[in-house]
Amino acid sequence: MAVKFTYTETETQEIVAKYQAGVELEVLAKDYNKSVPSVRMKLVKLGVYQKATTKASSKPADTVVVEKSGEFPKTKSGVLAYYKSCVGKVGYSDF
């Protein structure tokens, strides 16, 4: 059975204030004897949590990202790049 973490009103206010001041989730979880996912979910439910931004992209330059609209690339080079990125994800390459 999963452990249920409960937060007092005081803990909630302190966690929100510290998070907004830049304290990391790992530190908050340790300080309040909670799990990182629990603290994150509490902040999400309160509308405070901001997803961490990545500093550098790890995607190859020819990776094509399909937009949420579901549109696929229309150019030959775009389709080839999309195909290569898909094949690369499954670990097979014959190029």
Structural account:
The structure is a single chain. The protein is mostly helical. The chain folds into 2 domains: 1-53; 55-90, no CATH class. Helix content is 46%, strand content 0%. The chain has helices at 9-20, 25-31, 36-45, 76-90. The radius of gyration is 21 Å and the shape is elongated. The mean pLDDT is 79.
In whole angstroms, how far apart are the ends?
48 Å
The helix-strand sequence is HHHH
- Count of helical stretches: 4
Please compute the radius of gyration using only Cα atoms. Answer: 21 Å
The major beta sheet can be summarized as:
none
User: What does the average pLDDT come to?
Assistant: 79
Number of strands: 0
Beta strand %: under 5%
Count of the separate structural domains: 2
Overall shape: elongated
Please state the structural category: mainly alpha
Give unreliable regions as ranges. none
User: What percentage of residues falls in helices of 4 or more residues?
Assistant: 40-55%
Q: Could you give a short description of this structure?
A:
The protein is mainly alpha-helical.
Secondary structure blueprint with pairings:
Layout: H1 9-20, H2 25-31, H3 36-45, H4 76-90
Structure characteristics:
mainly alpha, 95 residues, 2 domains
